[in-house]
Amino acid sequence: MNCLLTISSHPFEACESKQYFSSALLTDSRFFKQAHSTSKAGRSLIALFIIVLTSLSSPSAARADALALEPEAAARAVMEEFLVAFNARDEARWAKTLLFPHVRISSGDVVVHPTYEGFVAAADLEAFAKRINWQRTVWDSIETVHVAQNKVHLKVRFTRYTPANEVLATYDSLYILQRHAELGWGIRARSSFAP
Length: 195
Known about the structure:
Layout: E1 3-6, E2 10-15, H1 18-27, H2 29-36, H3 40-56, H4 59-67, H5 71-87, H6 91-95, E3 98-106, E4 109-113, H7 116-122, H8 125-132, E5 136-147, E6 151-161, E7 167-180, E8 184-192
Parallel strand pairs: 3-8
Antiparallel strand pairs: 1-2, 3-4, 5-6, 6-7, 7-8
Helix pairs in contact: 1-3
């Protein structure tokens, strides 16, 4: 690991791993010798510094890190969950990957789903499966087109399969994901050549 540790002048200059840095700092005897010879205010500052570093590797910090994934990684995680829920025919779980109002452009039409509850009530994946003899869908490719702090555009190709594992069809789509201030990342809109 690249971690420059200079106790005497600066606590750290560059460190790739917060957890490594806090462990190295806490076990470095030079740090404690300096802390002992420092004024009361200096020792208080050092104690605060240790508390902050220790909290960086706490479970709550780990959850926060998971929620604060880079935009592209977060968008791809939502896409994976979207497909898992879709293939499981779990409408409520599937809808949790979407942001509302949610827009779908397909079959020469634009459908806007205003609410989560309305989407779940209208969705019937079992009926969809029976109607087209569908068993599962797979992502063939997901390419990032644009990335911003709060929005990602993905170019997607997916294939639908029958229960006999035969290809029903392959479609190209564009998925637009956004980060909602309270709900996190979700799919705001889908434009698909699929019916």
